[in-house]
Q: What sequence folds into this?
């Protein structure tokens, strides 16, 4: 028996914690994972680990995880050879495009794409060949407004200023719950300790959230906000700072601030108060506290992205950091200087260059908002979508009005899924192509090093051997591209492996050949615990990609959206609004098939304030019926003093008990899908991002 230790970054969430895995090999049987622990030698994550990482062994060993290509024949799934599968895909897609045009094939890429570097480097090698405008992803149920605000203000959608959490004195968090999510667009392993360190050095953490979340509970101040009301709060804050005079100048060159100031002066704290349900004096006091802190940062995430004015929210919070002199300043918001620099290497992006066929929603960076996916399949006419490719995504449980999407998937001519499981979405596929598991593959965080609160870099080789006959995701894309190019006689440029691309990226980057460090894969191989490249430093002025290299405070598209906001009426009385929720033992829709994570107290229930229960004659633990414009679900309700009255919370990603799902543990879990209630017509109209939070619902006894 031999035991070996391996070091590796966890790929399951954005915190990229360093792990130490023990692999045991015994004669006659293959290598087994015998222990997973936090790696204290990773100077970034400092030994932090959460329960999900321990479940990496369950993903590896899960008998439900697909290990070979599967073809659906009627209701049966049959194994099929890779070459046969590639040829079948090429034949079906080419035929559909020939008959109905390129846009008849749609694609959807899910969240794990950004946690799997081969998917990042190679999905487009195949998907690009399809030349379709119907490309969708999880971005438009998530952070699209953040990219759009950065694109319009800084000239590049990936130029996202990150909170300098380790040096700030005042952290204002809107719509993020890092204690559950472990941080997002802020790669911050061990976040709880880092937040406590702010408090320990005499600073303050303030959380704005319609629920007293885990993060709100540890904060110095928590403000309940009406779901979707953050835009009003932010207007009130910025206006107060404008009125009372900026406390500190910024070194940055900015166009349009005077125009902003004039355009928003009508949105005073007093006028905004009813829209966000926060008293005006509290709004004004928060503005003063923020502006007078020595180093402050305003950070907003998922909860403020997925609402009706998501882009205005992110624009306003950039401005709040800017006008208080905290943008591009130590202890404020700073851009990273990553070892593989995607910002330097790519053009800024484009927005609204074309629109979706049915609802006219704008593209961003070549993708359309996923709220339009089902209608593009269901609405007849030229350009109707007749085939879909999903890559590492589960849109039936993740995108608004999932039931409508199911109906649309059922009517497709052909569907291909590149995925590990037969789940709520992939059960509609004609063909599922599964990749190797993560531990059988190399790992580099192309995305999360870009969003990290320190400049860090690490490359880890595969820990487990690649099973015979298995392919990595990137190899699946190469196989599909070759088959499709051959079939359509299109030109296919040769490609190189993801690791070689990282090598090129590292050497061209700021720590590469032109620097004394001369960072390369060989260097990273010598540092299995990762390399710390230092704290974030001011660099935004030199990284701006706007035409005149100045910050654009008043982009035309955003100024035009102010009128949509100004036209809002007062909130309806007696409204009941639905929001989401995350738990540290869960991960979107796909990690409920591991006993280790789902055991214990159930976490799928609707949370409701006791006062709201009493008003409806409902009691704690009872089964209730929740209905919205698009659907009805039934689930148990829990009385919770954490909730703001008038707001209920349901986590997404549950509701696995549907026919044909091959996930034996997940299907046995109770719970329903929150996205059977969310509404594909409830959008941030500017970006097209789904407004998953703030959905009007009714709750009554089931
Ligand atoms: N109501 C509501 N809806 C939400 C949210 C919310 O807060 N509330 N959150 C939204 C957000 S932020 C996101 S990001 C989306 C997520 O939405 P999706 O990305 O569509 O869904 P996931 O649950 O992440 O599904 C991941 C899929 O990838 C597969 N998979 C995992 N690893 C790999 C891999 O390495 N290779 C391949 N090929 N497949 C893999 C899994 O089997 C699973 O099918 O959900 C969104 N939906
Ligand atoms: N354990 C775990 N970790 C995860 C994930 C997971 O599913 N589970 N998913 C990963 C993904 S894909 C992402 S995008 C990140 C997301 O990371 P976060 O953005 O931190 O996401 P959440 O934990 O959903 O926190 C959103 C918060 O917004 C609040 N909220 C809802 N509506 C509103 C509103 O209108 N205004 C305000 N101010 N707040 C509101 C909710 O109550 C919630 O506390 O997490 C990642 N990490
Ligand atoms: S917080 Fe948990 S899931 Fe996220 S990277 Fe760290 S160990 Fe992995
Ligand atoms: Mo996400």
A:
């Amino acid at each position: 028996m031999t035991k070996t230790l391996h070091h590796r970054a966890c790929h399951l969430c954005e915190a990229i914690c360093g792990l130490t895995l023990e692999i045991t090999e015994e004669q006659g049987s293959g290598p087994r994972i015998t222990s997973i622990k936090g790696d204290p030698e990773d100077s970034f994550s400092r030994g932090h680990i959460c329960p999900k990482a321990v479940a990496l062994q369950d993903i590896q060993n899960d008998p439900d995880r697909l290990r070979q290509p599967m073809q659906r024949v009627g209701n049966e799934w049959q194994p099929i050879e890779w070459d046969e599968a590639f040829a079948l895909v090429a034949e079906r897609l080419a035929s559909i495009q020939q008959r109905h045009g390129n846009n008849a094939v749609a694609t959807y890429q899910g969240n794990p794409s950004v946690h799997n570097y081969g998917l990042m480097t190679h999905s487009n090698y195949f998907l690009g060949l399809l030349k379709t405008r119907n490309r969708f992803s999880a971005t438009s149920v998530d952070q699209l407004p953040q990219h759009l605000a950065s694109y319009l203000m800084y000239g590049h959608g990936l130029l996202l200023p990150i909170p300098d959490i380790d040096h700030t004195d005042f952290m204002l968090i809107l719509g993020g719950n890092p204690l559950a999510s472990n941080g997002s667009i802020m790669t911050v392993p061990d976040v709880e300790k880092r937040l406590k360190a702010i408090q320990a050095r005499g600073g303050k953490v303030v959380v704005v959230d319609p629920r007293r979340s885990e993060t709100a509970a540890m904060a110095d101040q928590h403000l309940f906000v009406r779901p979707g009301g953050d835009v009003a709060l932010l207007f009130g804050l910025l206006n107060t700072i404008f009125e009372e005079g900026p406390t500190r100048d910024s070194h940055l060159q900015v166009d349009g601030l005077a125009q902003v100031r004039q355009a928003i002066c009508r949105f005073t704290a007093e006028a905004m108060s009813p829209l966000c349900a926060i008293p005006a004096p509290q709004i004004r006091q928060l503005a003063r506290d923020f502006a007078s802190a020595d180093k402050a940062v305003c950070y907003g995430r998922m909860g403020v992205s997925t609402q009706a004015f998501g882009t205005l929210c992110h624009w306003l919070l950039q401005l709040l950091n800017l006008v208080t002199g905290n943008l591009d300043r130590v202890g404020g918001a700073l851009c990273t200087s990553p070892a593989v620099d995607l910002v330097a290497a790519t053009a800024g992006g484009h927005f609204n260059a074309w629109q979706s066929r049915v609802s006219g929603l704008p593209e961003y960076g070549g993708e359309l908002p996923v709220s339009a996916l089902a209608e593009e399949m269901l609405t007849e006419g030229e350009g109707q979508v007749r085939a879909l490719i999903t890559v590492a995504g589960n849109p039936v449980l993740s995108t608004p009005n999932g039931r409508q999407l199911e109906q649309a998937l059922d009517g497709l001519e052909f569907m291909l899924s590149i995925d590990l499981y037969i789940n709520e979405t992939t059960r509609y596929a004609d063909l599922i192509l599964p990749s190797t598991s993560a531990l059988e593959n190399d790992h580099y965080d192309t995305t999360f090093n870009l969003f990290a609160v320190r400049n860090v870099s690490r490359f880890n080789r595969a820990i487990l051997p690649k099973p015979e006959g298995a392919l990595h995701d990137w190899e699946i894309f190469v196989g599909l591209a070759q088959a499709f190019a051959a079939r359509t006689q299109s030109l296919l440029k040769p490609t190189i492996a993801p690791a070689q691309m990282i090598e090129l990226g590292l050497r061209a980057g700021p720590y590469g050949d032109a620097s004394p460090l001369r960072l390369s894969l060989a260097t990273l191989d010598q540092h299995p615990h990762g390399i710390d490249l230092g704290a974030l430093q001011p660099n935004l002025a030199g990284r701006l990609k706007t035409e005149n290299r100045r910050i654009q405070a008043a982009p035309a598209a955003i100024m035009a959206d102010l009128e949509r906001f100004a036209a809002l009426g007062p909130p309806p009385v007696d409204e009941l609004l639905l929001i989401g929720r995350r738990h540290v033992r869960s991960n979107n829709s796909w990690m409920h098939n591991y006993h280790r994570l789902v055991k214990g107290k159930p976490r799928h229930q609707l949370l409701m304030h006791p006062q709201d229960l009493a008003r409806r004659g409902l009691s704690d633990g009872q089964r209730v019926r929740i209905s919205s414009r698009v659907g009805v679900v039934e689930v148990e309700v829990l009385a919770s003093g954490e909730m703001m009255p008038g707001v209920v919370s349901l986590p997404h990603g549950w509701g696995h008990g549907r026919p044909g799902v091959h996930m034996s543990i997940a299907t046995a879990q109770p719970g329903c899908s929150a996205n059977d209630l969310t509404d594909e017509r409830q959008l941030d109209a500017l970006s097209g991002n789904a407004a998953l939070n703030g959905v009007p619902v009714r709750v009554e006894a089931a």
In short: The radius of gyration is 25 Å.
